Each structure stands twice: as structure tokens, then as C-alpha cells.
Amino acid sequence: MSLARRQAVISLIVWTAILVGMVIDLSAAGLERFSDPGNHYYRGILAGLLLPGLALNGWLGMRQRRARRAGELDERDEQVARRASELTLIVLAIVVFTVGVVLWEVYKGGPGAPAAWFYVLAYATVVLLSLIHAAARLICDLAGSADA
Amino acid sequence: MPKARIGNRVRELREVRGMTQAALGGMCGCTRQTIIMLEQEKYVPSLSLAFAIARAFGVGVEDVFQPKGPRRRSADPP
User: Fold this and answer.
1) What is the ipTM for the molecules in this complex?
2) With the C-alpha atoms ordered A19, A24, A27, A29, is the resulting torsion angle positive or negative?
């Protein structure tokens, strides 16, 4: 397995685990009461969950720079990463747009959407960004490249 | 507009010379994975990589890479 593919798999596993942890944390606290002052414990866990993922992203970034200098990554890896970034942007935009429209549809008749939704949306965007990018890198890598 | 496809003889030329994919990748400055994708025609290399591969085989770039004709889409006229 090439370095680029191995990194994508590791990233996918770690960010999937973080997403699962996030869902468990949100379920335990309850979305409607997530922003209550007494629930700061769950909000702390949610913020803490991101740390290993962000540390991993930083480490992978440094490793990639070293690998590029050492010739372990080549032009195809760069092309795969570019294509994955394009795909990630499109998918993430669709997800955020859809969630926004759904929230509008659900809460338009009431006093307003619970503040927790915006907290969740902010954190979910970070998690999904890394998760979708890892999955897209893996898919593009297995497919060869965008223009073959 | 139909997209031009590029075929190649990388596997054939490599096997004739008894080279491994890793060795060819090392000579051209690319990874073994890229050579695999090239041989499966799932990747079209940059000009610089195409020239490096041709140089590694000691032939011209047109002896390794050839256009395969356009890939027609259903909307294109025959």
C-alpha cells in the first residue's frame, strides 16, 4: 500500500471514530438541551474529540511535506489530493446547504432553531471536512486519476 | 467535445527490459503505484513524466504513448 493510500485509510478510520464519538456525545446530552449551562461537560467532550483528529491532520501534513521532498509522493498523488479537495468542497457545500434548508423548514413556524444546532453544525463541518477528504482521496486514488 | 484518450506500452516495454515497476518508478521519479495505474491506463502522466519514462526505456515518447482516439459520449454525433 502506497504512503498516500495508507494516510487516507488512517485518516478515514480516525475521523470516523471521532464522528461516532460526536454522535454518542450529542445523543447523551440531547440536542434540545445541549446548549444548557449545565451541559458544559458534554460540550467539552465534543471539543476534546476534535483534538486527536486535528493533531493527526497536522502530523500527516508534516509527513507529506517530508515524503514529497524524499520522492515518496509524486505528481499523481498531488493530482489525487487536488481532485479530493474539489470533491470535498462540493459535498460539504451540499451538506451544509441541505442542513440549513432542513433547519429552516423544521423551525420556520416556531420561535427559532435551538442554538445547539449551530454548535453542532460548526463542529460537524470540521469533522465532515476531514472525513470526506479522506474518503475522496481513497476513492480517487483507487480510481487512478480524474482524467485517465 | 470528445476527450482524447492516451494508450501506452509501458508494461510491454518494461517487461521486455526485465524491469520491475518499482525500478522503473525509481528511474522516473514516481511511485510504483503510479506505474501500476499507468499500465492499467487509469492515469495519464504529465509531459515531464512521459519524457522521463521514454528516456528510461531509451525510446521516443511517441513509442511509449499513443492517442487511442476520442472517447465518445452518448450526446456526441457519430
Assistant:
1) 0.71
2) negative
Domain ranges of chain A: 3-143
CA atoms of A117 and A100, how far apart (whole Å)? 10
State pLDDT tens for residues B1-13: 455 588 999 999 9
Chain B residues contacting A via beta carbons under 8 Å: 3, 29-34, 37, 40-46, 49
User: For residue B73, what are the CA distances in angstroms to A144, B76, B77?
Assistant: 20, 5, 9
Question: For residue B37, what are the CA distances in angstroms to A140, B1, B29, B33?
Answer: 12, 25, 15, 6
Asked if A72 reaches chain B (Cβ–Cβ under 8 Å), the answer is yes
Q: Tell whether A77 is within 8 A of chain B (Cβ).
A: yes
Q: List the one residue out of A78, A94, A85 whose CA is nearest residue A135.
A: A85
